[in-house]
Design goal:
two-stranded antiparallel sheet, 2 strands, 30% strand, flat
Length: 27
């Protein structure tokens, strides 16, 4: 995905069109 802030932070990853924490599962 391409979040408005650019790449996701170290503790986040892309889920569809937004970033979620690594510990969260993309559904």
């Amino acid at each position: 995905c391409t979040p408005s802030g650019g790449a996701c932070g170290f503790y986040y990853h892309c889920c569809s069109n937004y970033c979620i924490t690594i510990s969260s599962t993309c559904r």
